[in-house]
Amino acid sequence: MDIGILNGPNLDRLGKREPEVYGSRTLADLEREVGEHARSLGLRPRFFQSNHEGELIDTLAKWADEGVKLLVVNPGGHTHVSVALRDAIAGSGMRAVEVHLSNIYRREPFRHVSVTGGACEGVITGLGFDGYRLAATHLAAPASR
């Protein structure tokens, strides 16, 4: 079964952008580590990152049309403002878990609200790369299907 791992704005800057918040590992590191974990669960990972809301929405629609059923999504800054991305997640038919590398509740107050999280089964925040692995593990479990 395929699992989509969708990353939003600025996640391509991991390892360079605010390392005190996001650490020194890169998006390539994340894709390698999470990909290995997903494959160990019997899943086929598909990765996509964009800084553009429309590309994220288009990718969700494409994956849904191709039969992807599971989604790990880090909407980045779109988390707090994008009704369009929220609607795309909700309308995709995918079981989704939202993840955030940093703890959004320990940051600026505007980050404490997730518009997109309501379209997901759960939200994992503040556990770094482990959050992605936990989300994939949850989605892969037969009991959660």
Walk me through the structure:
This protein has 145 residues and is an alpha/beta fold. The chain has one domain: Dehydroquinase, class II (Rossmann fold). It is built from 5 helices and 5 strands. The protein is globular and about 35 Å long.
SSE layout and pairing:
Blueprint: E1 2-7, H1 19-22, H2 27-40, E2 44-49, H3 53-65, E3 70-74, H4 83-91, E4 95-100, E5 122-125, H5 129-140
Parallel strand pairs: 1-2, 1-3, 3-4, 4-5
Helix pairs in contact: 2-5, 3-4
Features:
single chain; alpha/beta; Rossmann fold; five-stranded parallel β-sheet; 5 helices; 36% helix; globular
Structural class: alpha/beta
How many beta-strand runs? Answer: 5
- Under the CATH scheme, which class? Alpha Beta
Unreliable parts:
none
State the share of residues found in helices, binned by percent: 25-40%
CATH architecture annotation name: 3-Layer(aba) Sandwich
Question: What Rg do the Cα atoms give?
Answer: 14 Å
**How many structural units, i.e. domains?**
1
- Count of helices? 5
Question: How would you name the CATH homologous superfamily?
Answer: Dehydroquinase, class II
Shape category: globular
- CATH topology heading: Rossmann fold
Order of helices and strands: EHHEHEHEEH
In whole angstroms, the N-to-C terminal distance is: 12 Å
Mean pLDDT: 94
Strand order of the largest sheet: 2-1-3-4-5
Main sheet properties: 5 strands, parallel
Q: How large a portion of the residues is in β-strands, by DSSP E?
A: 15-25%
